[in-house]
Design goal:
about 30% helix; four-stranded parallel β-sheet; Rossmann fold; nine-stranded mixed β-sheet; GMP Synthetase, Chain A, domain 3; 3 domains; 14 helices; alpha/beta
């Protein structure tokens, strides 16, 4: 049996009364309670008639209850499908129609709007997370022993969506083996032990907060200081109680703005980890001057979990994402798949047990993104230096990373172009000190149109998550194009930077 739950379980402390999670109000959840809650939900899913391979979609605010549900899915060999809480009903329609979950767990406000969902077939079971509600998922919990369902490491454990350059999201299938092998590699690379306490202020609907953070904790039997959201004042108050913090670059830039954040605040932390977006060298250097800590930057994506990490011991190179983890094979190739030499910029490809098994219901796209010898094309460009450190210099895929979240311009452009009065548009990412990149739209009006920024932004806010909405809209007579008619986004970025 290669069920990921059992791998996690091997790392739990011998004494299950040991704390797993501490909330900011001082309350605790023990490892024993964690296991009991996961077992009760697994029994509940069985009573609903769910079968191995069925999907459980979850779109709720950050809560320990989500961890119980995730582990229950693993125990039952169900596919856990987390969704960004910022998605609107119009966006949810696509995900639910494509994933076709048997269970959908959502916030009360979304539950009220489900009648407007444009899906071929609504999920059979729809719940909220609220206590004392008839619709609460907590009502399905059932006490009693639950036998962990047998499965192989190649069976899908989680389904996460990442939009493509066409604007159509792709379901990424991560297996029990993908997630487990990467968690083990990270636990060892970052020296996680039972004595660690992780400050967890990340969302848990994507790889960083869900698989990276929780995996390291489960496998080491350590504990979490749980924060529902990232708040500078609350985080800096919590940091002295912890030994490790994981965050996106935006977290660190915001901490640096606080006059109270200094060497003393960070004295008990052994490791600050950054990922999900590029960390600026200026941030790296300023953080060291203010705290005496060199932030450890790593590199990964939804399709691969974590690929590279700067070392726990030894020099951490600013501007690089470190060296490949154990069992990772990275190569740099040109567009004809010829291997490139050291310090030559090319396409980054990776192979290893952490790399996803394919896209949900998209076998042709899966085939396109893998080479004949099973290397995955990341879509990023970079180079390896003489010490084996990887530097990312750009993206061949048209993607913006804003506050650690992926934004695909084509999705936004399609919505803008459909609005009355718009001729065409181009969406780009521009440097932002807080978010890393901010979303900006350049719009060409139709001849008689007087559509303005306020109208456009208001229309977008009703249809897409807030982090995707452009922070600024510029109007132009025409978009710059090359000889082949392709919009020159590099020119736009230069013009508006």
């Amino acid at each position: 049996m290669e069920n990921l739950y059992l791998k996690y379980r091997e790392g739990f402390p011998t004494d299950l009364q040991s704390p797993f999670l501490e909330s900011t109000d001082g309350s605790f959840i023990t490892y024993g309670e964690l296991e009991e809650q996961a077992s009760q939900y697994a029994n509940g899913f069985a009573d609903l008639g769910l079968q191995p391979g069925d999907r459980v979609s979850v779109q709720v605010d950050k809560s320990p209850e989500v961890i119980f549900i995730y582990l229950a899915c693993l125990r039952s060999n169900l596919i856990f499908h987390p969704l960004n809480t910022a998605y609107k009903v119009s966006e949810l329609s696509y995900f639910l129609d494509d994933a076709k979950p048997s269970v959908f767990i959502c916030e009360k406000e979304i539950y009220k709007k489900l009648s407007s969902l444009d899906v071929e077939k609504k999920p059979q079971h729809i719940f909220t997370l609220e206590l004392d509600e008839v619709t609460s998922i907590q009502n399905i919990k059932k006490k009693g022993d639950h036998k962990v369902v047998d499965c192989s490491k190649n069976q899908t454990a989680a389904l996460l969506y990442s939009s493509g350059t066409t604007g159509k999201p792709k379901g990424i299938m991560l297996t029990h083996g993908n997630i487990g092998s990467n968690a083990q590699a990270l636990k060892e690379a970052w020296n996680f032990t039972q004595g660690d306490c992780l400050l967890h202020a990340l969302p848990i609907y994507h790889v960083h907060g869900l698989f990276v953070a929780l995996g390291c904790v489960f496998l080491s039997g350590s504990r979490i200081l749980w924060m529902n959201t990232f708040n500078v004042d609350e985080v800096q108050e919590a940091i002295p109680k912890c030994s490790v913090m994981m965050g996106v670059p935006t977290y660190y830039t915001r901490l640096l703005t606080s006059p109270k954040f200094n060497h003393d605040t960070a004295a008990n932390i052994r490791l600050f980890i950054s990922g999900s977006a590029p960390l600026l060298e200026d941030t790296f250097n300023e953080f060291y001057l203010k705290t005496g800590h060199h932030i450890l930057e790593r590199y990964g994506m939804t399709e691969t979990n974590i690929i590279c990490s700067n070392p726990i011991a030894g020099k951490r190179k600013p501007g690089t994402v470190g060296v490949p983890l154990e069992n990772q094979d990275i190569r740099i190739v040109d567009d004809l798949l010829n291997n490139l030499d050291m310090n030559e910029i090319g396409n980054i490809q990776v192979k290893g047990p952490n790399v996803f098994k394919g896209y949900w219901n998209l076998p042709q796209k899966t085939k396109e993104d893998f080479s004949a010898d099973k290397f995955f094309n990341t879509g990023d460009k970079g180079f390896l230096d003489e010490d084996g450190f990887l530097s990312i210099v750009g993206r061949s895929k048209d993607m913006i990373i804003s506050g650690g979240l992926n934004v695909y311009p084509k999705e936004i452009e399609s919505l803008i172009d459909d609005l009355e009065g718009v001729g065409e548009s181009a969406v780009i990412g521009l440097k932002d000190d807080d978010l890393g990149e901010k979303v900006v739209a350049i719009v060409v009006r139709k001849e008689i149109s007087e559509i303005n920024e306020e109208v456009l932004i208001s229309a977008l806010k009703n249809n897409i998550a807030g982090f995707k909405v452009p922070k600024k809209i510029f109007f132009v007579e025409a978009l710059p194009r090359n000889a082949m008619g392709k919009v020159q986004k590099n020119v736009l970025r230069d013009n508006y930077q």
